[in-house]
Specification:
mainly alpha; 1 helix
Length: 59
Amino acid sequence: MPARVGGIAVTPGTAFCVVPGRTPDAVRLGLGSVPEPQLARALETLAGVARDGAAAGAG
């Protein structure tokens, strides 16, 4: 399931890059005050997106 279908906003790493063209191979998570069950579902969704992307050669 794509993150946006799971209600998760995703912003490209370039938005957080200080030096243009030097985007790290990483993710940045912004965690707010959210109930733990909702946070767990969101993290499971993101893990699935990362796993599926890596399996498809995109990660």
